[in-house]
Amino acid sequence: MANAEVKGAKRPRWLGFTAAVVLCLLLVITVNYKSFTVFEREREQQQELNEKIEDLADENLALQEEIHYLKTDPKKLEPEAKKLGLERKKEVFSKADETGTAEVPANRQTPTSN
Fold first, then answer.
1. How far apart are CA 20 and CA 18, in angstroms?
2. Is residue 20 part of a domain?
3. How many domains does the chain have?
4. What are the distances in angstroms from CA 40 to CA 5, 34, 35, 51, 54?
5. Domain containing residue 61
6. Which end of the chain is more exposed for a tag (fewer CB within 10 A), N or C?
């Protein structure tokens, strides 16, 4: 009878094999799930960075265009210079009469001596 109890207590061979396969599958699933989530996060970051690159490229193109217009178009340059507080120097021309003395423009004051 002792022999019968030992035979009945034996586990089937497939049970150990099945348990090993299930544990391996769980390990593979866990590792793959973690890798998948990391991959998804990195893909989202890459998409965000690509959008930023595209936005910066568009901004760079617009700035290059503005630089070109500022260098070539005086009508575009003057308003920008005024924003910076710069003004074009106004040249004052005076006529010299036959004696060589210059006329003083009406908007300029002559120095007075005290």
1. 5
2. no
3. 1
4. 55, 10, 9, 17, 21
5. 32-79
6. C
The structure's pTM equals 0.47
Q: How far apart are the first and last CA of the chain?
A: 142
Is position 54 within any domain? yes
The HSE-up count of residue 44 (CA atoms within 13 Å, CB side) is 5
In a domain, 106, yes or no: no
- pLDDT tens, residue order, the chain (114 aa): 445 455 556 778 888 889 999 999 999 999 899 999 999 999 999 999 999 999 999 999 999 999 998 888 888 888 888 888 887 777 666 666 566 565 555 555 555 555
Structural domain contains residue 93: no
- The sign one gets for the Cα dihedral 19, 21, 24, 30 is negative
